[in-house]
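Sequence of Glycosyltransferase involved in cell wall biosynthesis (Allofournierella massiliensis).
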Amino acid sequence: MIRVLHVVRSMNIGGLENIVKSILLSADRESVICDCLICDEKESDYEEELRTAGINVFKLSAPNKTKIKFYIDLYKFFRNQRQNYDIVHIHMAFTNGLIALAAKRSGVKYIISHSHGVMLPTKNAFIRKPYEVVMRKFMSKYSDGLLACSKSAGDYLFGCEAFREKGKVFLNGIDFLKFAFDENKRDVVRKKLGVEDKLVIGTIGALVPAKNHMQLLRILNEFKQEDNVVGVIIGSGPLKKTLVSYANDHDLRDRLLLLGKRLDVSAYLQAMDVFIFPSISEGFGIALLEAQANGLPCVVSSNIQDEAKIAKNIYTVENDAPLNEWKRAIQKAYNDGRNYYAHDLRESGLDLYSNCKKLFSWYKEFLQ
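Predicted 3D structure, token representation.
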């Protein structure tokens, strides 16, 4: 039996967290046992579900600014738990390096660092650069295996040479049948939202700059002359006030539904007519996979990786293209309509549970 401890920043609703949750729940607990260490004392959205499933959930304080206390807490934790786990699998971006260092020095046998995306440069990127360089060295030195959702995500977090030597691509995936189109659910949700006779343009993702939700609002402004167009955004985050302010300033409040975090994302996908994904930066795009599984025509930015575009009804627009190009693409997508056989996309290699089985076989290989 292989015992694996997954280390995450939180288990709130989100793309990375959904992947980790699926890995945890897919383990059969006979040949592979997966438990979870959350580096935040606040209650996470998925904690109760994980505990109910018999998964051990440990908690540590979130990393502070200097991360000294965080490192000490990690070292003590791993020192106490090192006999209980064969592998520590880390999902915390550049903090992976510090966690890998603490785990290795406390005697953990095998460590995997996992990259889930490519981050946007921040205002303090110059200040962070030395930290990132050190963390890359730690990940390369103290991680026995490197995983990433794509080659670009692996090259970004670990460096090209390290990922080439130690890395594997673990494709993100979803349960395609869970997101299959359902006409009855569509009618119920559209009635609930009051959009029965509307063209609904929707998107899903944290309200952060990388997701570029403001583009949807700009596009809604382009549709101002058409009374039947509304926008739906599922997600929460620090940019909510900015979006609300823009909507108020441009008289879009009656055309925009900000629905916050939702556990029942598949139900709200049913209500949409076109899915828009204008991200500036994206690791792989779980929300885009979910939309494709639902059969939705998708209009995406040119920043989205080709690996995530598997359906035929996807329309790519340059992210800095004029808004009327986005508008035309949305109109074409709407006219072309849904792919009602989208659940057949399971053959794409992005079926989550098949990929989890592959990961568990990799665990065995790593330990040999």
